[in-house]
What we know:
- The protein is mainly beta.
- The protein is built from 3 helices and 37 strands.
- It has a 5-stranded mixed sheet with strand order 1-31-32-33-34, with no helix packed on it. It has a 4-stranded antiparallel sheet with strand order 2-37-36-35, with no helix packed on it.
- A hairpin with a 5-residue loop joins strand 33 and strand 34 (589-594).
Amino acid sequence: MRRLGRFVVLAAGLLAAASGVGGQGAKPYTTWTAYGGGAHSSQYSALNQINKSNVSQLQVVWTFPVTGTVIFNPLVVDGVVYLQASGNTLAAVDAASGKEIWRRQMQGPIGARGMNYWESPDRSDRRLLFLAGGYLTAINAETGDAIAGFGDNGRVDLRIALHRQAAQPLHTGNPGRIFENTMIVSLPAQGASYDATPADVQAYDVRTGRIQWVFHSIPHPGEFGYDTWPPEAYKKSGGVHNWSEFTIDEQRGIAFIGFGSPRFDFYGGDRPGTNLFGNSLVALDARTGKRIWHYQLVHHDLWDYDLPQAPKLLTIRQNRRNIDVVAQATKQGFLFVFERETGRPIWPIEERPVPQSDVPGEHASPTQPFPTRPAPFARQTFAEKDINPYLPAAEREALVQRLKFLRNDGLFTPPSFEGSISMPGHNGGANFATSASDPTRGEMYVVAKALPTVDRLTLPGQGGRGGRAGPIVTPEQKAQLTAQARELLTTGGPVRLESPYEFMNQNSRNMSAAGPPWSEMIAYDLNTGEIRWRIPTGTVLAPPELEIPPNTGSHFPRSGPLVTAGGLVFFATGSDRRFRAYDRDNGHEVWSMELLVASEGMPATYEIRGRQFIVVPVAAGAGMFAARFGGEGSAGGGRGGVGGPPGQYIALALKQ
């Protein structure tokens, strides 16, 4: 059921960020002072010096070496690029030359995806704020030295306001966001078990480190949504974390936060109810943390269908009027679009019946939300006709036989004892950073992947490690497991089942069980809700005897697109190690370059002394599922990884 909270209509024209850094000032979308380009998370730049007519003239201007895999999105302020040089080291480099200015090692690993910049109104106090080893950390942007007056000598333990004890530091890759003088941080769930910690959203004063407000993602007594859980859930349940990123409408002072699934991800027998704010897009007052509105996009999640990326802010035009909207891409391949201030869906969202669970103790939701428009961007079914034709014949036949024993009722097939097909699997669909928007044209670009999973439940102590293929479960074995589970329920349940889920790429070629395209980019016109174009993103480097044609889509990309006013969409693919530029009007590839190793994360772009640069993170070992083709664990078809080329940031600009 749709749950739309009370809303507050906020007047346009509220004060922007006090420092003016997070806002875009007189030249909207021309800076890159925050993750994804700004608090708007658009991954868009109004810079247009690099365009369709001259992109072929791009050349490498400088490189900066890094250690290990890096997906960090650099920040650029006053001619300085701030980036991650290794797992626990930050560096500042000259934006024009790449020359190192300073380097500082932090206490613990740095949040993998990015950091934040803040300055006082008179610019005498300039800070970088980020997560390191479970601590919110503040350093001087000019020197890299700790800010002694922030927290305890420059650090704040994120466990400080947690209502439940957490044994380990709360480390997360989510960079958080700064609004005015407030640093907003989303806590991690700290593990995927039933005993994971709650993942509240916390806000801190950027000057002192003092806590300002807390939003409970699992509601406490008296809070909205408390009745969607068992009464003691806030004391015992965990998860519901914004592990990806979130977005702030600085003009209105609204933070749009997409939450993840409750723990345990694949079984909810111990958490009957719709489980707010799990899998919900929530609009919070960024100054107070109060809920303005919310919309739950998956009820009582059983598929790990987190909201995997930052919502996008756009302005669309309908019926001769402009509408400011927020758009959320999901792992299940849907794109939901809402009016920003009220949460009103731009197009109807239908509650449709979905397959029900036969697992003892489970309480699957009878319906799930389906947007009537736009059309889905990802494939949502997997059957025998969809099996990858480039797998060896014996492996294809084994898949055919296995499908006969798996439950396969389409989207939202619940996990089962015999194993259930989930398509898209919980890697997406969409994942972190894999969409970008042009907020000025009402357009959105989403990268989709095709990788089914098998979600199989087992009794406690009988499970395997997630990600590995399990044995076929016969009907007789399923009946035995069901009887055992019912017996446990009568003796003190609910049962805490386990799930040795399987990504369906466990084969000799490390390829998706589904056929191509393995990844696509889809361009939406959100003024109409129509798909403008869709293209495969890249190809797979494979031995010639496999006869895999080009343009089948790269395997499992984890990079993000960059859209520019030069009419281009830039995107890096992993399994063929290329950085490409596409014509945003039709999706045609207009330029590409080979990278030494695969790329993850997203590019950044900026202008220095009248010259536009694009910085791309590339790193040895990048790629969650690298196409091996005989090279176990190697990245991008046999290059990179241990012993391969080193990781680096590459800065590109037009020839002078």
